[in-house]
């Protein structure tokens, strides 16, 4: 098979050639956009799931939907070591610029940009020297007395209100998309929930769409108790057999090529239905196939190449971030689950390692901060990365 025509595209956040199995989520967001356009109240949205299920891809698709509707839309990726002000300012700056081309009053747009600049400048420490102060790329004077109190909760409510009113002026809305939302700092999560709560009560046309790991709902609930009712939670999971087949068949057929039924069986068994793995194994199978159609033998021959690439780029990059003590903990989890994608009791991990549970708490907490494991319920721990246990058991240390 011609590698130049290979349609499959494994990559972080890269849209697959066929976005299979996400029709329900896309339709639900379309309803959100339409309801907001008609001035009806609507909850913001939170997508949760393991790594490799396509949350980032779906966020990008939702952003495109909003833009096609004439909305302003900005997307950020949260980082645990940095606050929300700077990236959020950049995202909303982009959204406002998209709205500005439709607004007939430039002075109104400049006024909101001034508020945004005032909000952004509060990211600088109070004692920072002038030469060290970060300057946002907003070419208007900063406003005074609006979104500049230094209290992130107050400032975010005021900023969101002004941006939403600007969108309402042009008969549109604003979508703010936040990837890796579980990494937003606790103070900022609380402020974000408060701002969304305020906007939902007023029916303002601003929607937040967050995406994160499975424990994100618990983090939001711990921040603000009403967050359980504030957001609509959507679990993004692996694809069903039919959806997985569509993700493989549709791109191949568009290239006027074929794949036999046994090869589809083999691809599903290897990938487990996880979108990222489907792309990896299908790409390798296409390249390995000597002719059309792709066969089960082609999948078997190419599987090692796909797994080698995953071991370096998908699993290995995460494993390398762990300390020796953390790797010991991860290995114990893999052994207790026989490499399956399942949770394990933290007490069992301690017993397996012959240690006291309290002595393993630092390693477990650090792994959670690094996003390698998560706890959906008290006393339970699981990998955030599908097939990670299988990777660990197959690794020769």
**Total E-strand runs:** 8
Number of domains: 3
CATH topology of the largest domain: Rossmann fold
**Beta-strand percent range:** 5-15%
Q: How helix-rich are the residues, as a percent range?
A: 40-55%
- Write the element-wise H/E pattern from the N-terminal end onward: HEHEHHHEHEHHEHHHHHEHHEEH
Please identify, by name, the CATH architecture of the largest domain: 3-Layer(aba) Sandwich
Residue-averaged pLDDT: 92
Any low-confidence stretches, pLDDT <50, length ≥5?
A: none
Q: Can you summarize the main beta sheet?
A: 5 strands, parallel
The coarse overall form would be globular
Strand order of the largest sheet: 2-3-4-1-5
Structural class of the secondary elements? alpha/beta
Q: Please, how many helices?
A: 16
CATH superfamily of the largest domain: P-loop containing nucleotide triphosphate hydrolases
The CATH class of the largest domain is: Alpha Beta
Instruction: Calculate Rg over CA atoms.
Output: 23 Å
């Amino acid at each position: 098979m011609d590698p130049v025509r290979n349609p499959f595209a494994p990559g972080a956040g890269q849209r697959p050639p066929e976005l299979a199995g996400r029709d329900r989520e896309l339709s639900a967001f379309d309803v959100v956009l339409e309801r907001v356009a008609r001035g009806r109240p609507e909850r913001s949205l939170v997508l949760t799931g393991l790594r490799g299920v396509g949350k980032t891809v779906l966020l990008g698709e939702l952003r495109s939907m909003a833009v096609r509707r004439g909305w302003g839309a900005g997307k950020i990726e949260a980082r645990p070591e940095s606050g929300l002000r700077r990236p959020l300012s950049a995202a909303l700056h982009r959204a406002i610029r998209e709205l500005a081309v439709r607004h007939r009053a430039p002075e109104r747009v400049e006024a909101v940009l001034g508020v945004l600049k005032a909000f952004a400048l509060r990211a600088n420490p109070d004692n920072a020297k002038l030469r060290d102060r970060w300057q946002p790329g907003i070419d208007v004077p900063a406003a005074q007395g609006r979104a500049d109190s230094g209290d992130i909760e107050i400032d975010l409510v005021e900023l969101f209100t002004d941006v939403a009113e600007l969108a309402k002026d042009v008969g549109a809305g604003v979508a703010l998309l936040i990837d890796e939302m579980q990494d937003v700092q606790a103070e900022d999560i609380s402020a974000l929930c408060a701002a969304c709560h305020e906007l939902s009560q007023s029916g303002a046309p601003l929607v937040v769409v967050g995406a994160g790991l499975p424990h994100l709902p618990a983090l939001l609930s711990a921040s603000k108790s009403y967050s359980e009712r504030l957001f609509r939670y959507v679990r993004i999971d692996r694809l069903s057999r039919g959806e997985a087949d569509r993700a493989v068949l549709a791109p191949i057929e568009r290239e006027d090529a074929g794949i036999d039924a046994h090869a589809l069986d083999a691809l599903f068994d290897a990938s487990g239905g996880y979108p990222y793995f489907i792309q990896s194994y299908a790409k390798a199978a296409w390249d390995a196939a000597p002719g059309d159609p792709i066969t089960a033998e082609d999948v078997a021959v190419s599987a090692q190449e796909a797994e080698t690439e995953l071991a370096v780029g998908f699993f290995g990059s995460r494993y390398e971030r762990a300390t020796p003590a953390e790797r010991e903990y991860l290995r114990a989890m893999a052994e207790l689950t026989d490499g399956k994608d399942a949770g394990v009791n933290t007490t069992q991990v301690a017993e397996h390692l012959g240690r006291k549970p309290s002595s393993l708490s630092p390693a477990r907490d650090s792994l959670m901060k690094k996003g390698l494991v998560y706890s959906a319920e008290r006393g339970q721990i699981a990998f955030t990365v599908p097939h990670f246990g299988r990777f660990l058991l197959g690794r020769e240390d």
